Amino acid sequence: MEYDVLTPQSLRLKLPLVTILFLATLLTGCNSFRPVSSVRNPSRLPRPTETVRTRPPAEKPTARPPRSRTESSTPPVTVATGPTAAVRSKLVTEAERFLGVRYKYGGNNPREGFDCSGFVKYLYNDQGLDIHRVSRDQARQGKQIEVAAAKPGDLVFYRRGANQPVFHVSMVVASGPGEIWVIHPTSSRGVIRENILASSYWKPKIYAVRTMIQ
């Protein structure tokens, strides 16, 4: 068996070749030296984290303005005094029983419905008080009093103009400074209770307040 004898001259010739082979093996065997474009499927790269969008907090509903005082407020408590107190109190109590009853032109009772003068006649007759059927005729009965002196059970009459006839009547159920609460049937809402001094419709049409209870 023959052996190669490494001489200093042969060793110097083989070292560059060994170095070149080592570097070639290192470069071809490490994926970290590949350019990014050499990746086969770039779509499989992890996606950047998406920013989660949050909705702004819902706005709180704005409180609605209070309703008009013509109907929704509580009327003042008016205590009738004197010899007519019992009759006035019964008229108010009976009238409040029919709140919500429908309006009917020519109606005289709660079963069929009421119009304004039919409602007043029904209440008064129930207390043994005689009164005409039509509001124009009712406006000629009793005694006229000042608006500020109105008491429960008194009647308020209305007309559309100075030379116009009476067209409506309502009954007082409570009164106070700047307030006259009445109960009456209206064609749009039936029997209701409202403060006529706070009503832009009824206040300018007030013609007279009359008392039938002596």
Explain this structure to me?
It is a single chain. With 214 residues, the protein is α+β, with helices and mostly antiparallel strands. The protein has a domain of 127 residues: endopeptidase fold (from Nostoc punctiforme), CATH 3.90.1720.10. It contains four helices and eight strands. The strands form two sheets. The protein has a six-stranded antiparallel β-sheet. It has a two-stranded antiparallel sheet with strand order 1-2. A hairpin with a 3-residue loop joins strand 6 and strand 7. The longest helix has 21 residues. The chain starts with 7 loop residues before the first helix and ends with a strand.
Strand content: 15-25%
| CATH third-tier fold name of the domain at 85-211 | endopeptidase fold (from Nostoc punctiforme)
Class based on secondary structure composition and strand pairing: alpha+beta
User: Span from first to last CA?
Assistant: 157 Å
The overall average pLDDT, rounded, is: 79
Query: Count of helical segments?
Result: 4
* Poorly predicted runs: 26-39, 58-69
Helical amount among residues, as a percent range? Answer: 10-25%
Tell me about the largest β-sheet. 6 strands, antiparallel
What coarse outline follows from CA principal-axis ratios?
A: globular
State Rg: 49 Å
The CATH homologous superfamily of the domain at 85-211 is named endopeptidase domain like (from Nostoc punctiforme)
Strand order of the largest sheet: 3-8-4-5-6-7
Number of strands: 8
- The H/E string reads HHEEHHEEEEEE
Architecture per CATH nomenclature, i.e. the level-2 architecture of the domain at 85-211: Alpha-Beta Complex
